[in-house]
Amino acid sequence: MKQPLRKDLEPVATSFIVKELTELHFDPNWHFHPHYQLFLVEEGTGTRFIGDSIKPFGPGDLVFLGPNLPHLWRSDQAYFNKQSGLVTRGIVVYFAEDFLGTDFFGKHEMTLLRQLLNHARQGLEWTGPTRAQVEAALRTMSKQSGGFDRVISLLTLLNSLSHATDFRYLTSPGYTNTVKPTETDRMQLVHDYVLGHFPDDLSLDTIADLAGMTPPAFCRYFKARANKTFSEFVSEVRIGHACKLLIGGKLSVTQISFESGFRTLSNFNRQFKDITGQTPSAYVRTYRQL
């Protein structure tokens, strides 16, 4: 049985949680929880789903998520093969908004931190100099045994992030989580099927039948919960995969377009620019300059 969409962290004695993760693959379930989450990928590649954002991830990927923002770091298929020798590693911090008391972030001195927490409800990522600083801070924090020093480390880290300007929002401005915990299995089935079959011709009738709905009902259902049409979702999954292949630099653009599920190069180039705002070649140049 699949885990519920809404996750509640196990009770702990400390005011917040810092974990070093080492697994064959990251949690494959699309879920949300009532905590803030700061997550650094140290090892592993795949596709990151946050709200209505779909992007590839790799080592150094750093995001900050607000409460109840659905997310999933879907490791590449090779990580699900136990004989591959691959592992994923990361550092994650979970904390509730009231982890230092109900009024702490309401104080005047906490204005910038409060703004940071509000921004995190859309999801944030850092790709500039701040990312390297946060990586070092998270690694230090993960080695601390807890207590006062770790609390100060977290506040110092949040303060640094509140002053940083090299961030990007992840979800669209109007995105809200409308998914109910009781709908876990249906949305999980759709995600799993698309992630396993996106290079192929996906049939709306097949997907709708999988969800136990008629095609028109499924289209309305999916758009209301994902803030995008099903076809837009599939295109973003395919382009996210294409981005990873482009970064790898082993295939031509034509090969990548077919590997990602596009049947014509012109359609691939058009959708790539619509979704990323760049041509494939410009995307590669931008990535290499980061």
Describe the overall structure.
The structure is a single chain. With 290 residues, the chain is an alpha+beta fold. It has two domains: 17-169, Jelly Rolls (Sandwich), CATH 2.60.120.280; 182-289, Orthogonal Bundle (Arc Repressor Mutant, subunit A), CATH 1.10.10. 42% of the residues lie in helices and 17% in strands. The protein contains ten helices and nine strands. It has helices at residues 111-119, 129-143, 148-163, 184-197, 204-210, 215-226, 230-248, 253-259, 265-276, 280-289, and strands spanning 17-23, 36-43, 46-50, 53-57, 62-65, 71-75, 88-95, 124-126, 167-169. A six-stranded antiparallel sheet has the order 1-7-2-5-8-9, with helices on one face. Strand 3 and strand 4 (53-57) form a beta hairpin. Helix 2 (129-143) runs antiparallel to helix 3 (148-163). The longest helix is centred in the last third of the chain and has 19 residues, at 230-248. The radius of gyration is 20 Å and the shape is globular. 30% of the residues are buried. The mean pLDDT is 87.
